[in-house]
Design brief:
The protein has one domain: Rossmann fold (3-Layer(aba) Sandwich). α8 runs antiparallel to α16 and α9 packs parallel to α11. Helix content is 42%, strand content 14%. The protein contains 16 helices and ten strands. The protein is globular and about 55 Å long. It has 420 residues and is α/β, with parallel strands linked by helices. The strands form two sheets. It has an eight-stranded mixed sheet. A two-stranded antiparallel ribbon has the order 1-2. α9 links the parallel β3 and β4. Keywords: Transcription, Transcription regulation. It comes from Brassica napus. This is BnaC06g03750D protein.
């Protein structure tokens, strides 16, 4: 789901520095589309899939050299058709995984999926649809922003290091909140880290993010500076982060740490290395948002079951806003979720980038790195409850040991916590 962190954000300006009721917190949504108009950019051509039928997809894979079997193809995939309302795991996600097991070529399928991106604007549209269909990403943005605002409320110089800046949409509400802060706004500096591959969806380099956030900050009266770092998190070193003395430091890990290989994958253990590196910076707060699933070191069968249970709940929750046979639903699944599911189930070793851990394991890693919990405030909890009022009552919110768990029908799907 981390691919969708490139869009809109609810305006939480009043949330951070006042104490409104839950009803008052139900503020209008600031769309990323209007945020993007602060700086126009040109479109980008790509190589969209000719259609969403799995037969043509496997034919395409075969023409690229992957050993794909076509025997009984229609019979094996028909029960997973998007038109079959008995299957919550609809569309391309389930079908691709069925093909994965039939052909033993999951790694090839995953690589082929990565080569079948839509155009940049189309991808943004699909991610926008997913963002609106479920509250998981708004939950992550708002909870992290609330923790950061609380941690820097008395600071004059604030430096935010975002380990997955994407489109920069998370910081719209925080910049507005800081602009409205009693006593005047602080000077804000954001270091935005992002995998260079994300420039495709962004339709340009990280300088576009800096320009848009800079114009927004100017409108809000917030002194602002942006530094973009187009590199993978495994390449991050302290000297690349530009930390300065006298700044209050906030570090943001939004659905990104599970991509870091740990000791079970490489001797470098970038997952724990990155946490130790951040601890050396003595940050005021570190925010962590992650999917609540246990797939990192699990063998195939338990990992398969865990993945299916997790994503079945996700897809079922999407049903509330988006019908399973809706054309855009199929596009959303194919371009925003399918690759995650295929990678989780079909890939091993360094090829498996999706390596989720439950919050209990993240707690152990943070404690070993020297961090202490920074409990989320009651105002953050109230804001999330207000956010959920515009969604189904089947979403559940639980506070446990200072962390928030957002789930579907009491099954936790995503968690948010903070450390210092």
């Amino acid at each position: 789901m981390e691919a969708t962190q490139k869009h809109i954000i609810q305006d939480g300006s009043s949330m951070f520095y006042h104490q409104p009721s839950v009803k008052q917190m139900d503020i209008s949504v600031q769309t990323f589309d209007s945020y993007c108009t602060l700086e126009s950019s040109s479109g980008t051509k790509s190589h969209p899939c000719p259609n969403n039928n799995i037969t043509s997809s496997t034919t395409s894979f075969s023409s690229n050299g992957s050993p794909v079997s076509h025997s009984n193809n229609n019979n094996n995939t028909s029960h997973l058709s998007p038109d079959n309302n008995n299957s919550p795991l609809s569309g391309s996600s389930a079908t691709n995984n069925n093909e994965t097991e039939l052909t033993s070529s999951g790694s090839s399928i995953y690589k082929a999926l990565r080569c079948k991106d839509p155009t940049g604007p189309e991808l943004l549209t699909y991610m926008h649809i997913l963002y609106e269909a479920c509250p998981y990403f708004k939950f992550g943005y708002e909870s992290a922003n609330g923790a950061i605002a609380e941690a820097v409320k008395n600071e004059s110089f604030v430096h935010i290091i975002d380990f997955q800046i994407s489109q920069g949409g998370q910081w719209v509400s925080l910049i507005r909140a800081l602009g409205a802060r009693p006593g005047g706004p602080p000077r804000v500096r954001i270091t935005g880290i992002d995998d260079p591959r994300s420039s495709f969806a962004r339709q340009g380099g990280l300088e576009l993010v800096g320009q848009r956030l800079g114009k927004l900050a100017e409108m809000c009266g917030v002194p602002f500076e942006f530094h973009g770092a187009a590199l993978c998190c495994t390449e991050v070193e302290i000297e690349k982060l530009g930390v300065r003395n006298g700044e209050a430091l906030a570090v943001n890990f939004p659905l990104v740490l599970h991509h870091m290989p740990d000791e079970s994958v490489t001797v470098e253990n970038h997952r724990d290395r990155l946490l130790r590196l951040v601890k050396r910076l003595s940050p005021n707060v570190v925010t962590l948002v992650e999917q609540e699933a246990n797939t990192n070191t699990a063998p195939f069968l338990p990992r398969f079951v865990e993945t299916m249970n997790h994503y079945l709940a996700v897809f079922e929750s999407i049903d509330v806003k988006l019908a399973r046979d809706h054309k855009e639903r199929i596009n959303v699944e194919q371009h925003c979720l399918a690759r995650e599911v295929v990678n989780l189930i079909a890939c091993e070793g360094v090829e498996r980038e999706e390596r989720h851990e439950p919050l209990g394991k993240w707690r152990s890693r943070f404690h070993m790195a020297g961090f202490k919990p920074y409990p989320l405030s009651s105002y953050v909890n109230a804001t999330i409850k207000g956010l959920l009022e515009s969604y189904s009552e089947k979403y559940t919110l639980e506070e446990r040991d200072g962390a928030l768990y957002l789930g579907w029908k009491n099954q936790p799907l995503i968690t948010s916590c903070a450390w210092r």
